[in-house]
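ARCHIVE CARD
SHELF: 3
SLOT: left
DATA:
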Amino acid sequence: MNIILFGPPGAGKGTQAAKIVKNFDLYKVSTGSLLREEIENKTDLGNKIKSMMDQGSLIPDNIINDLIIKVLSNKKSYNRLIFDGYPRNLEQAKYLDSQIKKYKQKISCVLSLNVDKESVIKRILGRQTCANCGLIFNKYYHPASNKNHSCDLKFLSKRSDDNKITIMNRFETYLNKTLPIIDFYKEQNLLHQINGMVKIDRIFDEICGIIASLET
């Protein structure tokens, strides 16, 4: 199965995607990770991407789409993908739709985590990422402790863009750019709306129920 996971910044997409990957043996597709991988591998495309990022430019759709094609053409992850953070606009959604069909795959479901602006702000301002193991915590909702985190607390840090003004801008961008995609998938009867403001395990239980219904 292939799954698309939506939600505003701070909705908990990364946390839920990690749990889905682990429990259903899927491959996570994050455009941020794909871009960083190209840069780390120092490919020609990676050098081009790094130059754009250094200049503060947005990465154009054609480059993102090329990276997505590399994923779709990989037989190892055939029909076993979860897209986190892609597509980001309606054009990307339509492109993904065409390429999924080209590579004889399909989107099984689209999960949309719904969270209000006030909760998003608090979640992101409290977000901490471990630089050592990559786990994500929140000092308000899900603080790191010796029971859930084995790394030293010195590895916990906030992202530089996790400030209130940036968060509000990102939330508005999400509403303007991403919500039209929701209608696109709703018309295809693929959309499942999920309350993203309840506890993490409860959200995941609902996701598991949705996925189980697809497999029957």
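SLOT: right
DATA:
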Amino acid sequence: MLTDNNMMVMFFKSQTMLVLIACSIVVVTFALERWIYFLRTRYSAREFKATMRKHLSRNQLGDFARYCERGSGSLGRIMVVAVENLSAGREQVDQILDTEIEKEQLKLEKNLVILGTLANIAPLLGLFGTVVGIIRAFRDIAVTGSGGSSVIAMGVSEALLTTAAGIVIAVIATVFYNVFTRTIRVRATDAEDARNDFWKYVSSRPVE
């Protein structure tokens, strides 16, 4: 009979399982770090565009810049650069904005490669641990000369634990990776929309 104590012994007996435990800690750590960062830099795109429309339609570039600096997340940091460099001309400002958008994307994508990598390799690590566990189980049977269904079942169950752990880690990492990637795409689209709206209102008003 497989008791809880036996399960714990089996869980920590495999070196592959220890690696998977370390992978799970890394996934949770970086997922939380990214989650907190996205929360700290969140903004309302609708509110931002409405405020931008209000200030720019009244030619209040200074008020709009101060609004961006007060805390509008990554969108505010991008658009305040447009206001500060407006005198350089549209072509030059667009180049600067392209650079700023890329910088913000790099900030948002930080550590995502780790989540994506672990989502891909965790099942493979689990499968590797399963193969090694099955080989060990049959080796033990060959050495001792004793077997039976109970012994084989114990060895196989121990081996399959690593596969299960690898799948769980991969699922968690994949979910967070996809959510964060989707958020980054949305923010990039918001930045492009804000840039287009900015030029639409600025081009119809004289510069202060």
